[in-house]
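dumping the sequnces here before i forget
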Amino acid sequence: MILISWPAGRARKFSNFVLLLCTFLLGACATPPDLAENIERQPQVHEIEIKKFRFNPATLYIQRGDVVRWVNKDIVPHRLADSVQSKWQSQDMVPQDSFSQPIMMSTLYVCVLHPGMQANIVVREN
Amino acid sequence: MKTLLKQIGILMFTFGFIGCATASGPAGTGTGENKLTDANIAAIVVGANQIDISAAKIALQKSSNSRVREFAQRMATDHQSVLDSAVQLVTRLGVTPKNNDLVHALSKQSAEHETKLKTLSGRAFDKAYIDHEVVYHEAVIEVVKNQLIPGAQNQELKDTLISVLPAFEAHLAHSKMVQAKV
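..and the predicted 3d for all of it:
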């Protein structure tokens, strides 16, 4: 008969590892799938800078439901609007004003006050 | 239109000439002899914005064309913002705007333009107003780009001029869009 003899410290480390593994496996089995999806991700806030009559970044990639926050760093007012579905529009944003909007689908948006100012938000599905 | 372009052309020549010929005044910190002073630049910025605000107010009183009115409202609002920002900056910097021949030339040309505008109505007014806005913005962009930005000695004044340029370029594009439909 072969007896495996480990030093006490090493044996304790191994038993801790087994305990951790069991906890992980039990946890994975016990969490309902819908709850797992809900706790997966909170909406994030993305910032777009308006400067020199441009939106930076010009194309923003987000996930559905994320919030986009624009900050006007120009010295004139701007007013933003979704130009695809016309679902949202900001008030006139004077210099240093900000405007936040949850975005549910990809869109092109414009500055209503300054023709030619436009940019994109792309909603990634994953 | 040809007369207008000729007038602006003369004004542009004047800009260039004065930009090369004006000697530094007490407020200038330029090293060369042929530089606009920051005080002159401040006066040009203030004057150029006031002129466009004034023309926009006439358009808002006289025009019934929605595109022209929308454009005029934009000019009144944006140029007032630029003017406020410029005045705030030069006040903080302790620069007192100092008129020079260029400001006088701008004022004279503006007065003549406004006198003409006041005699017109309907489409003739809209066309005269918007045609002038196109060439005026072209002229101002040239001056800001080639005279004022290179000439500004104070870095904050230079940065403000750089930040103003995209606004004038957007206005030029907007004026051309309106011009095509008047």
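Residues 22-31 of chain A have pLDDT under 50 and may be disordered.
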